[in-house]
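Q: Hi! First time doing this. I have a protein sequence and I read that you can turn it into a structure. Is that right? Here it is:
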Amino acid sequence: MNKITYHREGDYLVPNLYLPKQPKGSIGKYGRLRLNYLKEHKRGLYTELLINGTLKQHLIEIDESVSDKVNELIKQLAEQENINENLKEHQQIEWVQSMNNIKNRAEEIVFNDILYV
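A: Yes, that's right. Below is the predicted 3D structure, encoded as structure tokens:
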């Protein structure tokens, strides 16, 4: 059982409260998107993670897994559609359009599978 300790400040006893140590790392784009989703659509889970002190760790893990999955999907889709360095050298605008299209599709797939669940 946890026992609350106090320290004296003048005439008052003040509880010795502290926050648990937070993990080091950056939340990133996908972590911030997950945070907004939790706040708006999954308030119970958001509150639970916040109270347990595991919210930042959860967001870092989501950001890493979504980034990895998006990058993997981009490579696979670019390979399937024959978007390569040759196209990049000779038709830059078409290459950029194709890569942006692929990135948007990959993010949409991963968002529905991981981020917005």
